[in-house]
Amino acid sequence: MKDKIVLITGGARGLGAATAKKMAAAGAKVLITDLLQAESEATVASITKAGGEAFFLEHDVTDEARWAEVVEAIEARYGGLDVLVNNAGIASDGTPLATMTLESWRRVISVDLDSVFLGIKYAIPAMKKRLGVWQGGGSIVNISSIYGIVGSPGAAAYHAAKGGVRLLTKGAALELAPDKIRVNSVHPGFIETNMVKEGIRKMAALVPDISENEMMHEVAQRHPIGRMGLDTDIANAVFYLASEESSFMTGSEMVVDGGFTAQ
Ligand SMILES: NC(=O)c1ccc[n+]([C@@H]2O[C@H](COP(=O)([O-])OP(=O)(O)OC[C@H]3O[C@@H](n4cnc5c(N)ncnc54)[C@H](O)[C@@H]3O)[C@@H](O)[C@H]2O)c1
User: Fold this and answer.
1) Measured in angstroms, how far is the CA atom of residue 143 from the centroid of ligand 1?
2) Among 19, 86, 162, 218, which is most exposed with the fewest C-beta within 10 angstroms?
3) What does the domain layout of the chain look like in residue ranges?
4) pLDDT (tens digit, 9 = 90+) per residue, 180-205?
5) Does the Cβ of 34 fall within 6 Å of ligand 1?
6) Would residue 158 show up in a list of annotated catalytic residues for this protein?
7) CA distance 44 to 187
8) At how many degrees (to 10) do helices 37-49 and 14-25 cross?
9) 3-state secondary structure of 50
10) Ligand 1 atom closest to residue 14's alpha carbon, by position in its atom list
């Protein structure tokens, strides 16, 4: 990863921040984008303090014009892009389909799926500028989910978006293979981040006589390995797909879920 130019969306915290730290520690130059300024700056500061190179740009991943500006900024600074991690995302709000508004459906599809299309679209010309620099070429890693593979009640829009990311990845991989741009998806199980803690709080509130801690334990036990994942479990997978070591992988789905979907 040394000297690779990396853009990670939603890099302020959670899986994006863990991935940014791992890549920067290996010598990559990392642009973090997010809506959260203070958290992003804290992540950049911790990378810089550890001797790595990172910077932050505010960026709503649903905003096409901003995508163009962000990619322009990374090109101006480094001359192109080697790795894009489409990580920014939001959860469904738990509303059942019968009462879900079209606005709420569209919000999840927009942040979790449209953004991945935009990211791929704007990364292509920037990655082409680096053709020949790396044997493995450019690498796009799309963060889908186990919920892009299997369903659950109360998260239909999230399933639709993450399932969309899974197959968008394969379509993009086939289209971009001749350009030496690889595209793969990662499918995390439940990982203890803000998103999951918030989701578990909501789930616990819906079930009588269960505390948040008990719900946390119950969700962890759905993973045959007997625990939830760590942010580093996902960062390691993304790192591999971004690196030269995965140069024969494209269009693949890497499931990192403690056995959740093997059942
Ligand atoms: N945590 C899990 O268990 C889990 C499991 C499967 C998939 N995922 C996926 O992993 C990714 C990261 O999630 P996380 O768990 O780290 O959650 P998180 O909430 O900690 O981080 C998500 C980040 O995305 C940012 N973001 C949200 N909307 C944005 C927008 N419109 N523009 C720019 N940034 C935006 C948030 O500000 C936040 O920093 C998401 O795509 C999520 O769906 C997470």
Assistant:
1) 9
2) 218
3) 5-189+229-254, 193-228
4) 999 999 999 999 999 999 989 888 88
5) yes
6) yes
7) 26
8) 20
9) coil
10) 16
